[in-house]
Write a structure and sequence with these properties.
Strand content: 15-25%
Number of strands: 12
CATH architecture: Alpha-Beta Complex
Structural class: alpha/beta
Order of helices and strands: EHEHEHHHEEHEHHHEHHEEEEEHH
Distance between the termini: 38 Å
CATH superfamily: Spore Coat Polysaccharide Biosynthesis Protein SpsA, Chain A
Shape: globular
Strand order of the largest sheet: 3-2-1-4-7-6-8
Number of helices: 13
CATH topology: Spore Coat Polysaccharide Biosynthesis Protein SpsA, Chain A
Largest sheet: 7 strands, mixed
Number of domains: 1
């Protein structure tokens, strides 16, 4: 990112070629909401996209920054899979993007219905400059919180007891965790350094103790940082709405809204979490950006297979 007057903020995502089709939906939705613009760039951390996808991104105003493995400790690089670089790189965003002052991360399996999320992120950064802004992974918009809360808490206990002492594990598991698929943070936040330190411990430890949780390591580490150092501004889950649990519905006006309680509310950021498991459901429920009409027939057929 080189410019005489670079944008203050950057909306950042990362993907490889396998997920580039979802990232295109994110980019198109951001364009609908007015991004990029003079105040906020849109940046792809490229972990293996093909030339055609990279050309498409550039044509749509996305700045391409290659993944830099030299930033990540070898103790982490030696235990993660290539696709996990998209998650592992996040604590090093300030080093990777030295001109950016305010970071807004969106997982590549998200898309936005409006630009309100950015206003909320900026407001949060102004209210608490040292804090990270995050939404809970499960919320009152999801039926599971009412029907299966004990299962959620038991799952979280498994996460934390894998690598942490009982007191800290129980403390972390006793409240709802935060989802790191959408977050906002200023460059000057002390959370960055604490997060880096935590993932340097947790990636190697988890690779030995519970390899099935490797996709969640960066998120678990960030939650532990928050338990120890509660520098957090809570984001309304409407701006990181996980759709892998019931609670979202596309309605007649072609908007995606909450459907668990009255009144329905328009969702700001749709998160198509657990894509590999849920992709058929997402297609059937028309939860992709523009119901997936931006995809080629071949891409829709591949997703449906």
């Amino acid at each position: 990112m080189t410019s005489e007057n670079p944008p203050v903020s950057a909306i950042v995502f990362s993907c490889d070629e396998a997920y580039a089709f979802l990232a295109r939906g994110l980019v198109l939705s951001l364009a609908d909401a007015g991004f990029p613009n003079g105040k906020a760039a849109v940046v792809l951390i490229d972990i293996g996209c093909g030339p055609k996808s990279l050309s498409w991104m550039k044509a749509h105003g996305v700045q391409i920054v290659p993944f830099n493995p030299a930033l990540i400790p070898q103790a982490i690089m030696s235990v993660i899979q290539p696709v996990q670089r998209a998650q592992a790189v996040r604590p090093w965003l300030p080093e990777l993007l030295p001109q950016v002052q305010h970071f807004v991360w969106l997982d590549c399996d998200t898309w936005v219905q409006n630009g309100e999320f950015m206003g909320q992120m900026i407001a949060g950064a102004n209210a608490a400059p040292d804090a990270v802004m995050l939404a809970p992974a499960h919320s009152h918009y999801h039926a599971r919180v009412y029907l299966e809360l004990h299962e959620i808490l038991a799952m979280q206990l498994t996460w934390y007891t894998s690598c942490y002492e009982p007191y800290l594990a129980n403390k972390a598991a006793s409240s709802l965790s935060y989802n790191s698929g959408v977050f906002g943070m200023r460059r000057t936040s002390p959370i960055w350094a604490l997060w880096r330190q935590e993932v340097e411990f947790l990636y190697p430890a988890m690779s030995v103790r519970n390899e099935a949780l490797m996709n969640l390591v960066a998120q678990i580490a960030l939650n532990i940082v928050i338990v120890r150092n509660p520098l957090i501004v809570r984001l309304d889950p409407l701006y990181n709405f996980r759709c892998d649990v019931p609670g979202a519905l596309r309605v007649g006006n072609d908007r995606v809204v909450t459907n668990l309680m009255m009144p329905p509310r328009e969702i700001g950021v749709i998160h198509l979490a657990n894509w590999a498991t849920m992709r058929q459901t997402y297609l059937e429920q028309n939860l992709l950006y523009r119901s997936g009409d931006y995809l080629s027939p071949a891409e829709r057929a591949r997703i449906a297979s």
